[in-house]
């Protein structure tokens, strides 16, 4: 319903909402259609408002749960830290001197030395037959010793891997380390995706352009660019996604907090984002931008673009004179240009007038202070 004042649409929609079917039949067809159209338009706006509100509340709920989980981690920190210390004490015992890994490495070194001694003095360019003849059949035992050495060495380091697996595997250990890191840095951001969990598809559905069409209310579109990048990789299931868009340009996340950037960017994977944290960051940023009005929903009422509700400058110039007279900032018939300097000058004049009205009391206060100073000198 472009070109129709929003207040008029609201009035028509309210009139149609208050009327029943029999009352609507009494209207002429043109007005009846106009009322129903206004009511439908307002209903669609309310649906968009509800969807945007649902998205924002869902994100807020997930953030609240992530912070609650962080608080639980703080309470359980001692237990987790003690478990980590115990687990890695065992790992260190396997790797340290006297452990299986060191013992296996020592045996492998001895076997390798024996093999090298058996092969010592051979010409590297000699043929296999010549080597076999010169060693009188000792080549096969030497090679066998090398193979055994490698097997023993692999078995020793395999003991370390098996020790980690007994603690729940590497993934479980990384998860516990991440939780402890979250506690030490007040780092609830890394826990948010775990709270989103199965609701990931719902979050993407709510943020889909078919349901809600977003637009930036300023020239800063970094959040919407990041949202588009996350949507392009919605079907991805890997741990990382590229940090570059379809045009090969880097997706900027400079609008995010330091904690979010630390969660999203893995220093060991240049040019990539940690997918799950990137998605959680985008949802959080979008909800915040909707709340502050930096991102608007097209066709919405509560989340509408505030800049589109401003008057055109031509209209402002036409009505400014009468408005200034009405609010007492100008005299009738005054045609002087009104700008920021004029307003500041008028404000200063008004403040000066107000101070002069309070001058008698001020003088009495100063006289009383002077009397006190003279009395104190005596």
Strand content: under 5%
Give the strand tally. 4
Alpha-beta content class: mainly alpha
Order of helices and strands: HHHHHHHHHHEHEHEHEHHH
Mean pLDDT, to the nearest integer, reads 78
Count of discrete alpha- or pi-helical segments spanning 4 or more residues:
16
Q: Taking Cα atoms only, what radius of gyration do you get, to the nearest Å? A: 38 Å
The strand order across the widest sheet is: 1-4
What are the salient characteristics of this protein?
4 strands, mainly alpha, two-stranded antiparallel ribbon
Can I get a quick summary?
The chain is mainly α and 378 residues long.
Give your account of this protein's structure.
It contains 16 helices and four strands. 68% of the residues lie in helices and 3% in strands. It has helices at 6-18, 21-26, 29-75, 77-95, 100-118, 128-134, 139-166, 170-184, 189-196, 200-206, 222-232, 258-264, 275-292, 313-327, 340-357, 359-377; strands at 214-216, 240-242, 272-274, 295-297. With 378 residues, the protein is mostly helical.
Topology (SSEs and partners):
Elements: H1 6-18, H2 21-26, H3 29-75, H4 77-95, H5 100-118, H6 128-134, H7 139-166, H8 170-184, H9 189-196, H10 200-206, E1 214-216, H11 222-232, E2 240-242, H12 258-264, E3 272-274, H13 275-292, E4 295-297, H14 313-327, H15 340-357, H16 359-377
Antiparallel strand pairs: 1-4, 2-3
Helix pairs in contact: 1-3, 3-8, 3-9, 3-13, 4-7, 4-8, 5-7, 9-13, 11-13
């Amino acid at each position: 319903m472009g070109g129709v004042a929003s207040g008029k649409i609201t009035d028509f929609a309210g009139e149609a909402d208050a009327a029943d079917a029999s009352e609507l039949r009494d209207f002429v067809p043109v007005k009846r259609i106009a009322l129903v159209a206004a009511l439908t338009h307002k209903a669609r706006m309310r649906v968009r408002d509800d969807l945007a509100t649902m998205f924002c509340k869902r994100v807020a709920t997930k953030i609240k749960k992530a912070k609650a989980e962080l608080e639980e981690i703080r309470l359980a920190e001692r237990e987790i830290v003690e478990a980590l210390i115990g687990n890695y004490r065992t790992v260190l015992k396997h790797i340290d001197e006297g452990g299986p890994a060191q013992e296996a490495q020592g045996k492998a070194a001895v076997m390798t030395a024996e093999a090298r001694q058996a092969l010592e003095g051979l010409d590297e360019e000699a043929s296999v037959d010549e080597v076999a003849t010169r060693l009188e059949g000792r080549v096969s035992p030497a090679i066998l010793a090398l193979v055994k050495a490698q097997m023993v060495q692999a078995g020793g380091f395999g003991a370390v891997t098996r020790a980690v697996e007994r603690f729940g595997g590497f993934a479980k250990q990384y998860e516990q380390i991440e939780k402890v890191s979250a506690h030490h840095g007040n780092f609830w951001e890394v826990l948010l995706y775990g709270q989103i969990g199965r609701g990931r598809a719902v979050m993407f559905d709510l943020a889909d352009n078919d349901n809600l069409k977003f637009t930036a209310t300023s020239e800063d579109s970094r959040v919407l660019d990041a949202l588009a990048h996350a949507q392009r990789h919605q079907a991805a299931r890997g741990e990382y996604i590229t940090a570059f868009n379809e045009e090969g340009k880097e997706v900027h996340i400079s609008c995010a907090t330091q904690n979010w950037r630390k969660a999203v960017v893995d220093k060991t994977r240049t040019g990539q984002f940690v997918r799950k944290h990137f998605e959680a960051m985008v949802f959080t940023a979008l909800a915040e931008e909707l709340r502050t009005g930096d991102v608007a929903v097209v066709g919405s009422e509560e989340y509408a673009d505030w800049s589109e509700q401003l008057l055109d400058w031509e209209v402002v110039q036409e009505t400014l004179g009468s408005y200034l007279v009405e609010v007492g900032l100008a005299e009738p018939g005054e045609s002087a240009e009104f700008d920021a300097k004029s307003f500041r000058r008028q404000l200063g004049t008004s403040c000066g007038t107000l101070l002069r009205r309070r001058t008698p009391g001020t003088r009495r206060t100063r006289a009383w202070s002077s009397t006190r100073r003279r009395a104190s000198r005596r």
